[in-house]
Amino acid sequence: MRQQIDGYTRLCGLIGNPVEHTMSPAIHNTLAEGEGRNLVYVPFHVERENLGRAIEGAYGLNVLGLNVTVPYKGEVIPFLKEIDRMAERIGAVNTLVRTDGGFKGYNTDMMGLYRAMRSENISIEGEEIILLGAGGAARAVAFMCASRGAARVWILNRTPEKAEAVAEEVNTQQGRECLVPMGMEDYVRLPGDRRYLAIQATSIGLYPKVDEAVIQDRDFYKKIHTGFDLIYRPSTTRFMTLVRESGGRAFHGLKMLLYQGVIAYELWNGISVSEEEALAVYAGMKEAMGIEE
Ligand code: ATR
Hints:
The protein is built from 10 helices and 12 strands. About 40% of the residues lie in helices and about 20% in strands. The radius of gyration is 19 Å and the shape is globular. The longest helix is centred in the C-terminal third of the chain and has 16 residues, at about 255-270. The two termini are about 25 Å apart. The protein has helices at about 25-35, 50-60, 85-90, 110-120, 135-145, 160-175, 220, 240-245, 255-270, 275-290, and strands at about 10-15, 40-45, 65-70, 80-85, 95-100, 100-105, 130, 150-155, 180-185, 195-200, 225-230, 250. The strands form 2 sheets. Strands 2-1-3-5-6-4 form a 6-stranded mixed sheet, sandwiched between helices. The protein is of the alpha/beta class and about 290 residues long. The structure holds 2'-monophosphoadenosine-5'-diphosphate. 2'-monophosphoadenosine-5'-diphosphate binds near residues 133, 134, 162, 203 and 204.
């Protein structure tokens, strides 16, 4: 049932372009309804030239918080009063929290990925991790893994120079040689005396090219005990199928989407969302996407 809107209703929203296909209103409005909280969440389609005005205007209108999506996760930073340390390192902000005099920026995408992994009993600390990709998403994952204590992250990318740049940046910031950059075909050189957690952070396999995986060789997948694909459309990517066919566990990225929303909602409202509430929202998201697993 829709929340009654009255003089006390607080507003949160999403700014981006496009925003029309977002699942975020379903996440936040379901959480608010479940708690009986007088809060509504709406998407705002913002053109680039209006980005600064949108943020200032939202602050002036007493908006409680905003999410930020493509293509503005980097571009919003100059308009913030404050920025969380991890978001600053990553250089991307997806959540703005109202504070005295302006918004503070966070990156709940990476906090959400970590919480999604934890909820599936996947650990980062002390792990040997293969990270596929070195674009914007992979770069953020690299920072998250390094700061959460991964033993080593083997970062593989089609364009090796990009993997090298990410590795240098993360290693310098961490003060240890945690990241090892490689070309994508260099997976054959990965030490074979162990099995790895693999995080798939390229755009390969995304709908509609559902039969593609960035590495197709089955020998690669024998090295993987757990595969986590950031993609959630389709809900079973070719990467996940290959991991499972080699005996590993595999997960899609929908829980990451869930928890980035849950953590934003917690930051805005100064509360903790229980695992039970989060999983109720997740059930709705899966139903909306026609996912059973
Ligand atoms: P995102 O913000 O989703 O990370 P991105 O920054 O454009 O998007 O990064 C896309 C990632 O997918 C990169 O790692 C890219 O590899 P390159 O850096 O070599 O471009 C990878 N990718 C995209 N198309 C690819 C393809 N056909 N084969 C291999 N990797 C590909």
